[in-house]
Amino acid sequence: MTEGSQSRMVYLSGEMVPEAEARISIFDSSVLLGHCVTESSRTFQHRPFLLEQHIDRLYRSLKVARIHLQHTPAELLQITLNVLDANRPMMATGDDCWIVHNISAGSLKLGPGSNQVNPATVMIFTNHLALRGWARFYTDGCHAVTSMSRAVPSQTLDARIKNRSRMAYTIADAEARLVDPDAQCVILDIDGNVSENKGGNLFVVSDGELRTPSTDNCLAGLSRQTVIELAQEQGLVVREMKLQMYDLYTADEVFFTSTPYCMMPATKFNGLPIGDGCVGGITQQLLAAWSERVGMDIVAQAQRQI
Amino acid sequence: MTEGSQSRMVYLSGEMVPEAEARISIFDSSVLLGHCVTESSRTFQHRPFLLEQHIDRLYRSLKVARIHLQHTPAELLQITLNVLDANRPMMATGDDCWIVHNISAGSLKLGPGSNQVNPATVMIFTNHLALRGWARFYTDGCHAVTSMSRAVPSQTLDARIKNRSRMAYTIADAEARLVDPDAQCVILDIDGNVSENKGGNLFVVSDGELRTPSTDNCLAGLSRQTVIELAQEQGLVVREMKLQMYDLYTADEVFFTSTPYCMMPATKFNGLPIGDGCVGGITQQLLAAWSERVGMDIVAQAQRQI
Amino acid sequence: MTEGSQSRMVYLSGEMVPEAEARISIFDSSVLLGHCVTESSRTFQHRPFLLEQHIDRLYRSLKVARIHLQHTPAELLQITLNVLDANRPMMATGDDCWIVHNISAGSLKLGPGSNQVNPATVMIFTNHLALRGWARFYTDGCHAVTSMSRAVPSQTLDARIKNRSRMAYTIADAEARLVDPDAQCVILDIDGNVSENKGGNLFVVSDGELRTPSTDNCLAGLSRQTVIELAQEQGLVVREMKLQMYDLYTADEVFFTSTPYCMMPATKFNGLPIGDGCVGGITQQLLAAWSERVGMDIVAQAQRQI
Amino acid sequence: MTEGSQSRMVYLSGEMVPEAEARISIFDSSVLLGHCVTESSRTFQHRPFLLEQHIDRLYRSLKVARIHLQHTPAELLQITLNVLDANRPMMATGDDCWIVHNISAGSLKLGPGSNQVNPATVMIFTNHLALRGWARFYTDGCHAVTSMSRAVPSQTLDARIKNRSRMAYTIADAEARLVDPDAQCVILDIDGNVSENKGGNLFVVSDGELRTPSTDNCLAGLSRQTVIELAQEQGLVVREMKLQMYDLYTADEVFFTSTPYCMMPATKFNGLPIGDGCVGGITQQLLAAWSERVGMDIVAQAQRQI
Amino acid sequence: MTEGSQSRMVYLSGEMVPEAEARISIFDSSVLLGHCVTESSRTFQHRPFLLEQHIDRLYRSLKVARIHLQHTPAELLQITLNVLDANRPMMATGDDCWIVHNISAGSLKLGPGSNQVNPATVMIFTNHLALRGWARFYTDGCHAVTSMSRAVPSQTLDARIKNRSRMAYTIADAEARLVDPDAQCVILDIDGNVSENKGGNLFVVSDGELRTPSTDNCLAGLSRQTVIELAQEQGLVVREMKLQMYDLYTADEVFFTSTPYCMMPATKFNGLPIGDGCVGGITQQLLAAWSERVGMDIVAQAQRQI
Amino acid sequence: MTEGSQSRMVYLSGEMVPEAEARISIFDSSVLLGHCVTESSRTFQHRPFLLEQHIDRLYRSLKVARIHLQHTPAELLQITLNVLDANRPMMATGDDCWIVHNISAGSLKLGPGSNQVNPATVMIFTNHLALRGWARFYTDGCHAVTSMSRAVPSQTLDARIKNRSRMAYTIADAEARLVDPDAQCVILDIDGNVSENKGGNLFVVSDGELRTPSTDNCLAGLSRQTVIELAQEQGLVVREMKLQMYDLYTADEVFFTSTPYCMMPATKFNGLPIGDGCVGGITQQLLAAWSERVGMDIVAQAQRQI
C-alpha cells in the first residue's frame, strides 16, 4: 500500500513502524470481534481537515462501544499530527492523504467474559489518497444502485458508532455491484428508507432543496455536515427527512459524500438516469464551494491521477 | 495466551508461526471491515469433534460472505489437523483445546471498490480450553440476562454466516453484565423473540419438551445440533419455535449451548429463579449423554480447572 | 397473441369473441382499480389440469376481494370448457394452452363510493403455451435474483387473493433484471423472508428435504401444491418454513413453480452458483414424477419449441 | 357515463373515439398487471387546474413504473387540451369535468419476461364532474372511518407513483363502509400512522395548526399541495408530521383533499364527533380561499347538483 | 351483580365479605397501575373445571409480573374452594358459576419506586354464569369483526400474562362493535396476524383441519387447550400457525374459545358469511365432545337462560 | 398514605370520604380492565399548576377511551378545587401536594359486551408531595437505564391517552432496576427509539439544543410542554426528533420531566457517565426558570424533605 521507495510510517500502540511491519495479533479484538472504532479524515494541501471533529467523534464511538483508550483527545491529536509529519516526505505536492484511526479493545482472552482486559490497540496511519477510481465520476457521475440487504438497525448497533464490524455493508456493496461493477450502493434501512452508502452519506436535490436522511438511521458524516454548512452558506434550503427509492428516481440531482472524494455525483439510479443524466448544477456549485473553502480544486486533484 | 513454556503454533496463510508472532497487517479486511468468517470447534480427549461439519459450515459462510479461499475443504481439513498435531505437546492429559478458523478476504486496497483483490488470510489456531470461568455454572447455573440491544436481523446479515463483525453482540453482552457481572446475555431479535447468546444458542425445557428458536434468527450452532440429536435419542420431543421472555421466565429449565462448554445451565433469568432455581434434570441428562458420546466427563474436566 | 391463421376465441361476459376483438371498457374496474381476480391454469395433452381447484380458488379470491360474480362455480366450469373447446382447433398436437380467468367488478361509476354497481366483467381465454422463453432453464437452470422492492404484506393485501394489481411485482421483476436480463426474481417480504416470484412459488432442497415458505406471505400456488404432493409420494420430507437469502445461497437445489412451466430449476442465485451449479437430482426427479402424472414429458414439450 | 345526448370523446392511443367505444384489449398490461399510471385533474369554470403539474407528476410515475411513453410532456399536454375541447359541448355552464390520464405499458406478451414490448396505451378522458355524492359533506361533514387493512408500504410500491393497482385500497374502502355505508376510509400504514384515503389526502386542525402526514407514506397530492399553499397564504402554520388515530379523535377539524371535491370536511371519526361535530372554521376559510383562487364557489357548484 | 336474595361472598385479602362490600382502596396497584393478574375459571355442574391448571397459570403470571403473593398454590386452591362452597347456596341446579381470581401488588406508595411494598391484594369471587348474551350464538353464530387497533406485542407485555391492563383490548372491542353492536372482535397483532379476541382465542376449520395461532402472540387459553385435546381425541389434525384475515374469510368454520361459553361459533366475518353461513359440523362435534367430557349439555344450559 | 393526624379527604363519585375509606368495588372497570384514565397535577405554593390544561387532556383521554363522564370540564374543575380546599389543612407551609384524577367506566357487568353500563367512577384525591425519594437527584443526578421490554405502540394504545393500564410500564421499570435499584427507566419503542419513562418524558441537551421525542410514541406531558416553553423563552432551540440510545450516551445533559419533580437530571446512562457526570448547566438554568415561574424554589422544597 505504499507509493514511492520510502516507506510510510504507522503509529501502532506507542511505536512508529514502517507500514509493511504494521501488524497486530490475530487475537486482537478487532480481528476476533470487529470490536474496533474508526475515523477516516484527510488532508487538503497537506493540512488536516476537521481533524479535531473527527477525534471528537472517535471518542463518542469509543464511549458507546465501551472501549477504554489510554490517551486523552489532546494526546491523540498530537500523535496523529506526528504520524502526519512522519509521512510528509511521501506526499507529492499536488497530492493529499487519508488519515485513518482504528482503535480496538486490545488483545482478547478467550472465555466467558467480553470486557476489555488489555489496553486498546491504537492504529493510526496515513495513506496516499488514491482518487483514480473516483475521478471520472466527478464529470460522468456514478451509478447508484440499491442493495438487496438492509442496513444494521440502530436498535442493533447505531450507525453513528463509526465501527469496523462492516461485513453487512461489504456484502451490500457486492450486491449492488451485481448490477454494475462500478456501482455505488444505496443501502435502505429495514423500513425501506434510504440509509447510507457503504462508507458515505447521500443527498438528493429536488425542488431546489437539498435533502438527506436524518442521522437516526445513518452515520453522522462530517462530509455530510460540511455539505450542509456549504449549502446553507449558499442560501440553499437543507432538509433532513426520510428519503425513499422514489426520491432518488425522481430527484434532479443525487450525490454521495465521504471523506476521500468529498462529493461524488450520481447520474444513474437503478439503471435509470437521474435528472437529465448529467452532473447537476447544485452539485457542481457545492463542490466548487468546497474547493474554495479548502483552497484547492478537489476535482482537478482527482483528475490528475487518471 | 499460552500455557506452559513451549509456544503454541498458529497456521497463518501458509506458514506455521509461534503464537506470539501470529500477526496480520492492519490493512487486512478482518481489521478494516470485520470481513472475516470463522469456526470454533474443540477436541474431546484430544480428538477433534465434528471438525468436518465445522469446515462445511465455514465454506457456507465463505460463500455467502463472498470470500474466495484458495483451499479445498479437504486441504483445509488437513492443514487443521497439522495445526492440531503441532500443538499436541502443549495439551495436558485431562485438557482439551479450541480449534479456531478465521478466514478474511485478505489485505484490502483503499478506494471505491470492495471486491477481494488479494488471497484470503487464513488463521488457524488452537488454544488451551480454559473452562474455569464456566465451571461453576455446571452446578450452580448461570444468570441469563436480556440485553437492551437487539440481534442483527437476517435481512441485514444472516446470523448463520458465522462472522467476526461482532460489535453488536459485544455491546449486548456488556449491557447484560450491567445487571450481573457474570451474566450470560440473551439477545432478542428486533421483534422481541429470543435469538441467541453472544456466542451460543439457547434452549428451554417446558412441559417436558426441549424448545429452541429456529435458525431463521440465530446461528445454526453445531452444539445446538448435537443437543437436538442427543435429546431425540433420549426420546425427548424437540421443537423449534419462537421463544419469548415469558418462555424463559416460566421454563422448568434453561441452558445455553456453545462449543467450549457444550451446555451451560441457567438458573436465573433477569433476576428471577428459573424453575426451582437449581440445574434441571433434563439438562443434566443431556450433559451426561454428551459426556457418554465423547467418552469423557465434560463437567469434571471443567471442574478440575477451578 | 395468436398462433396460426385461425383466431382464438375469448369468452367476454357472455359472448364468445375473436381474440382481437376482446376489448373491455376503459372504465372497467380492472383498468381503473386493478380490481380484478384471476386464475391461470393449463392443459396437459389438451386436458385441463386441476381446473376445478383453480375455480375454487378463484371463488375464494372473489369473496375476499368482495367481487360478486353472477355465475356459480359449476356454470363457470362449463363456460371454461366451452372456451377450451372453441379453441381446440388452434392447438397443435404436441402443444398445450393456458386457460386464464380474469374477473373484475365490472364497469365503475366515478364518485364517492367504491361498491360494485355493475355485473362482473368475465374474461376467459386460452393461449398457446409458449414455452420457448423457459425451455433452456430445464437443463441450464435460471438465474434467481433478489429484487430491491419487497412483497405486498398480507395486512395490506393477502397474496393468496390471486389478483391483477401487480404493479409492485412488475417493478420488482424489472429490478431483478438489472442484474441479469433473464433473471427470475425472488421477492422478499418486508421482514426479509423469501416470499415469492413475480408469478410463482419457490422451493429449496437442503439436507435432502424440500423447503418452501408457508403461505402466510405468498400465493398458495396449485403448482406448489402439486410439487408438495409429488414429493410426499416420493417419500421426501417437505417443510413449510421461513426461508431467507442464506437458504438460497447454501441450498443444494432451488426451483420455482408456476402454471406454465410447472417447475423451473435455478442454478445461480445473486451471481453465485447454487449447489454445484447444475440442475439438481431431486428437481429432476420431481419433474419426472410430474410428467408421469400428466402422461407427457413436460421438458420435451418445452424443448420442442426452441 | 355520458350526460346528455351527445357522446363524450375519449383519446385512445392516437384516436379520438366515442366513450362507449373506448375499449382496450384484455391483454393490455393495465388489465393483466394493473401496470398503469394515472392522473386525475379537473377544470374550474371549464379551465384546467394545475394541468401542467399533473402531467409532470405523471411523467415521474411513468419513470419509476418503468413505462415508456411515446410522447413528450408538451405533446401530452396538447393532446389533453384537444380532448377537453372535444368535450366542451357536453359541459353545462355551471358544471366542470374530470380530466383523467391512464397510461399503461401496452399490450403484453405472456411468458417469462415482463418488459414493455409494445407502445404504451394512452387513455385520456374527461367526465362530467358528478359531485352529488359529496355535496352534503360540505355542510354536514362526512364520517371518517379507519380500515382494517393497511396501506401499501413504500418499500413495496411507493404511494407517490399514482397507479391503478388499487385493489388494496378498494378493499380498505369496503372495510370502512362496514361501519357506515357512506364512510370515507382512513388507511393507516403498517406502523399504524395515518397514510391516506382511498383516493385523497387527509388534514387535521389542532391547536390552530394544519397537520398532514408527510409524503413518505402517502400520495403527494396536488390538492394537498394547494391546501398547504392556501393555508400559508392565510398565515396558518402547516406541519407535515406523523398522525395517528389519537390525532383524529382529538382534532378540532379534519378534512380530506382530492381532485374532484377539493376539500371534504369530516365531522365524525370512528363513531365519535370531531371537535364540536360541525364543519370547522378553518376548513371553511380554506375552502373559501380555494373558491376565490379559482373564481367560483366550489361548494355551491356541488350543491346545485343535489 | 347478585342473583337472588342472599348475597354472594367474596374473598378479599383474608376475609370473606358480601359482594356489595367487596371494595379495595383506590390506592391499590390494580387501580393505579392495572398491575393485577387474573384467572377466570368456571364450574360445570357446580364442580370447578381445570382449577389447578388455572392456579398454575396464575402463578406463572404472578412471577413474570413480579407480584409476590403470600400464599402457596395449595393454599390458594383451598381458599378458592372455600369461596366456591360459601356461594353454593346461590347456585341454581342447572346453573354454574365463574370463579375469578384477581391478584394485585397491593396498595402503592406514590413516589420514585415501583416495587411492591405491601402484601398482594387477593380478590376471589364467583359469579352467576350469565350466558344469555351468548346463548343464541351457539345456533346462529356470532359476527366476528376485525378491530382497527392491534394487540399488545409480546415485547411490550406478553399476552400469556393474564392481566388486567386491558384498556387496549377494551377499545379494540368497541371498534369492532362499530360494525355490529353484537360483534365479537378479532384483534390482529402488529404484523397483521390474527392474535386473539378481547378475552378468548380463535380457531378456524379449513381443509378439515383445526387451525389456531400459536401462543407467541396470544393468551395460552385453557379453553383453547381443551379444544385442542378434544380435537386430537376425535382424530382431527390441529395446527398452530399464523392465521390472517384471508384464513377467516375463506374458512369453513370459525369459533372462539373462552371460559364462560367454552366455544362460540362465528358465522360471519367482516360482513361476509363464513362457509355456508351456518354453524359448522366440526364446531358442533367439538362442543358435543366438551359437553360429554363435563357431563352436561353446554348449549342447553345457555339456552335455558334465554 | 396520610400525613399528620387529620385525614385527607377523597372525592369518590359524588361523596367526600376520608382517604382510608376511599374504596371502590372490585367489579369496577378500573380493577377488571384497567379501563381508567387519569391525570396527575400538583400545586406550587398550594396553588394548582396548569389544572385547566390537565382537565382538558383528561377529557381527550376520556373521549378516545370511550368513557362517558357525567360532568362537564367546568364542573370537574370545581369539584377538584373543592377537594383541594378540603385538604388544605393537611398541607404544611413549605409543602405542596399532588392532585390526582382517576376516572373509570364504572362498575362492569360480566358478559359478552364491553360497553359502559354504569356511570363513571370518579376518584379525585390530593396527596402530600413526598419528594424525598427524588431530592438527591437534583444535585447528583439519577441513573437512567434502558428497560428490556418496549413501550406500547400507538397502534395498540396511544400513549397520549393517559391511562391506568400500566402493567407494561411497571414491568419495564422493574427491569431497569435490575441494573440499579434506584434507576429511572428509559423505555424504547418497538423500533428502538426512546419513548418515555414509566411516568414522564425525557430530554437531552446536545450541541446546545434541547431534544425530545415527538409525541407520536410517548405521552404529551404537560411538564414536557412547560420545559419546551421555558427553553424557548430562554432562547434555546428545542427540537422534537427521534432519539436513540446513542443520543443519550453522547448527550451533554439528560433529564426527565414529570409532574411531581418537574425535572430530574440524569448523570449516568446504562452505567456510563452522561457528559462530565455532573448535573448540567442548561438543566439547572431551566429548573431555575421553572422555580421563578412558580415563585418558589423547586429544588429547595425537595431538599427540605431529606
Automatic annotation (TrEMBL), chains A, B, C, D, E, F:
Matching Gene3D superfamilies: 3.30.470.10, D-amino Acid Aminotransferase, subunit A, domain 2 (3.20.10.10)
Pathway participation: Amino-acid biosynthesis; L-valine biosynthesis; L-valine from pyruvate: step 4/4; Amino-acid biosynthesis; L-isoleucine biosynthesis; L-isoleucine from 2-oxobutanoate: step 4/4; Amino-acid biosynthesis; L-leucine biosynthesis; L-leucine from 3-methyl-2-oxobutanoate: step 4/4
Names of the cofactor(s): pyridoxal 5'-phosphate
GO molecular function, one term: L-valine-2-oxoglutarate transaminase activity
Record key words, sorted: Aminotransferase, Pyridoxal phosphate, Transferase
Enzyme class: transferase
Transmembrane segments: none
The keyword Repeat belongs to this UniProt entry's keyword annotation: no
Pfam families assigned to the protein according to its UniProt record, in alphabetical order: Aminotran_4
Keyword Chaperone listed: no
Reactions accelerated catalytically: L-leucine + 2-oxoglutarate = 4-methyl-2-oxopentanoate + L-glutamate; L-valine + 2-oxoglutarate = 3-methyl-2-oxobutanoate + L-glutamate; L-isoleucine + 2-oxoglutarate = (S)-3-methyl-2-oxopentanoate + L-glutamate
Protein name from the UniProt record: branched-chain-amino-acid transaminase
Species of origin: Fuerstiella marisgermanici
